[in-house]
Write a sequence for this structure.
């Protein structure tokens, strides 16, 4: 029961974390920057919002966004952010599918528990890879943006990516721990049964040999 609850919590955390990473990948509110000093930007009410896909100018009378079309001319941190976030979003889909099929409430034919544990471990490993793919860009992007312009604050998309990364890490580790514990418990149960039957079989052999000895003596 405890393993099932741990596996279910890991599945929910992993799914929510993957959704957070997908939201962070598809939006552009990563960082808020300013071309001038902080006080000057506040007086002019002109800020710059930047993400992996476009850059927006935010003011009271203007909200204009320009997409990054020149891919080869982009800085390395933007190209790396695009690649890793897309890889993490794509890998999360089969990971969620594997974890869903490994739930205790779902049965695919006459499959054994060991096959479910293997799927859960594979899904947990994929979720850890998704978390690592999202961790690198969500840390490197604000550092690279701050080197270009003065960074004022973090955006909603960056916070969503951080929360999604933490959820995927926790969910992946919980799934792997629950699968390992259930596998070890099933092996212990099989070993105990094997020992019990071998003991019963060993106890019957002396009785059979004594009966044969009695028959030979009677003859």
């Amino acid at each position: 029961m405890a393993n099932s609850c741990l596996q279910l919590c890991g599945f929910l955390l992993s799914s929510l974390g993957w959704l957070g990473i997908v939201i962070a990948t598809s939006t552009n509110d990563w960082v808020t920057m300013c071309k001038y000093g902080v006080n000057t930007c506040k007086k002019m009410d002109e800020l710059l919002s930047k993400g992996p896909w476009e850059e927006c100018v935010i003011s009271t009378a203007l909200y204009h966004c320009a997409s990054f079309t020149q891919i080869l001319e982009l800085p390395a941190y933007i190209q790396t952010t695009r690649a890793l976030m897309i890889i993490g979003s794509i890998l999360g889909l089969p990971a969620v599918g594997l974890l869903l099929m490994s739930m205790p409430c779902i049965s695919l034919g006459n499959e054994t528990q060991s096959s479910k544990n293997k799927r859960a471990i594979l899904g947990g490993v994929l979720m850890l890879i998704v978390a690592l793919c999202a961790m690198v860009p969500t840390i490197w992007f604000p550092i690279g943006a701050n080197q270009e312009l003065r960074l004022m604050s973090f955006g909603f998309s960056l916070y969503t990516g951080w929360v999604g990364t933490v959820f995927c890490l926790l969910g992946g580790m919980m799934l792997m721990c629950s699968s390992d514990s259930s596998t070890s418990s099933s092996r212990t149960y099989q070993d105990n049964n094997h020992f019990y039957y071998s003991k019963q079989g060993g106890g019957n052999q002396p009785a059979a040999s004594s009966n044969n000895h009695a028959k030979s003596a009677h003859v």
